Amino acid sequence: SEGQDRDRDRSGHPILSIPGVEHVKFVRASALQKLPIPWPRCQDLDAWCCDVPGKEDFVISVSHIWSYAAHPDPLGEKTRLIQELVEQALVFFDFLGVPQQPFANGQRARTEEE
């Protein structure tokens, strides 16, 4: 719950020592239920979807085959299965955690910083 999130220890998670991790987003498992299909790109995620892993957090990295070049799951076929597998975790998905190129009209290009 939100109250529990505020009380979590946000220091000392081993993953935070990896070089470059400050540019990676970790998505709350609870946010997966609320994301539209197809998922938005990393840089289009609302801030409430992500968090910094705390010392006691269980972090999961999901790696799977992308059936399409521009988006890993545009029809949401894998999304439903993944939602069932993760419930209370911070999850790293490459598409949601690292800035991507536009896949739909009207999306801005990645910036040099991204």
Overview of the structural elements:
- With 114 residues, the protein is of the alpha+beta class.
- Strand 3, helix 3 and strand 4 form a beta-alpha-beta unit.
- Strands 2-1-4-3 form a four-stranded mixed β-sheet.
- 15% of the residues are buried.
Structural class: alpha+beta
Q: Name the beta content range.
A: 5-15%
**Any idea what the radius of gyration is?**
14 Å
Largest sheet: 4 strands, mixed
> Shape from CA axes?
globular
In whole angstroms, the N-to-C terminal distance is 31 Å
Give, in spatial order, the strands making up the sheet with the most strands: 2-1-4-3
**DSSP E strands, number:** 4
**Helix coverage percent:** 10-25%
Mean pLDDT value: 83
Topology as a string of helices (H) and strands (E): HEHEEHEH
Number of helices: 4
Pick out the low-confidence regions: none
Write the layout of secondary structure elements.
Elements: H1 2-7, E1 26-28, H2 29-32, E2 50-51, E3 59-62, H3 77-85, E4 90-93, H4 94-97
Parallel strand pairs: 3-4
Antiparallel strand pairs: 1-2, 1-4
What is the gist of this entry?
With 114 residues, the chain is an alpha+beta fold.
Defining traits:
4 helices, single chain, alpha+beta, 114 residues
